[in-house]
Amino acid sequence: MVNIARNTWSASPEYTINIDEMKRLNPNNEPLTPEKLRELSGLDLSDEEAQKIIWSIKRFARVLYGFATQQQVVNNENKEKE
User: Fold this and answer.
1) Is-contact 8 17, C-beta < 8 A?
2) Predicted confidence (pLDDT) per residue in 11-70, tens digit
3) Residues spanned by the domain of 23
4) Which of 58, 72, 78, 81 would you label with 31, given CA atoms 20 to 30 Å apart?
5) Within 13 Å of residue 65, how many CA atoms lie on the same side as its CB?
6) For the chain, what is the radius of gyration of the CA atoms?
7) Quick count: other Cβ atoms within 10 Å of Cβ 48?
8) Number of domains in the chain
9) Dihedral angle computed from the Cα positions of residues 13, 17, 20 and 25, in that order, rounded to the nearest 10 degrees
């Protein structure tokens, strides 16, 4: 659920993401590249290693988003029952 007043996204009260903070971290909404990953992590990675890590990060983000969306549905259903 997006809360316009607070500009946050939350699947539950315990887990809230500040959208303004996300925009501040990546104002131009640029994709994560091997170069950027090396810069941010300080690791000496080959392009292949970096691409595998980026793929894993994206996959993990999709799993988390799916879980959060599913949890939001459950939370809404529970509120309706109250």
Assistant:
1) yes
2) 555 666 777 777 777 888 889 999 999 998 999 999 999 999 999 999 998 998 888 888
3) 2-81
4) 72
5) 6
6) 17
7) 9
8) 1
9) 160
CA distances from 7 to 21, 40, 58, 70, 76 (A): 10, 26, 23, 21, 20
User: What is the phi/psi pair of residue 49, to 5°?
Assistant: -60, -45
The CA–CA distances, whole Å, from 41 to 23, 36, 79 equal 20, 8, 41
Give every strand in the sheet of 15-18, ordered side by side.
Answer: 2-3, 8-12, 15-18
b/e per residue, 65-82, with b = 16+ CB within 10 A?
eeeeeeeeeeeeeeeeee
Q: For residues 18 and 8, is the Cβ–Cβ distance under 8 A?
A: yes
Please give the sequence-ordered ranges of beta strands (E in DSSP) within 1-82, or none if there are none.
2-3, 8-12, 15-18
Query: Taking the complete model, does pTM exceed 0.70, yes or no?
Result: no
Compute the residue count for the chain: 82
- Report which DSSP code applies to 5: T
Q: In degrees rounded to 5, what are phi and psi of residue 10?
A: -150, 135
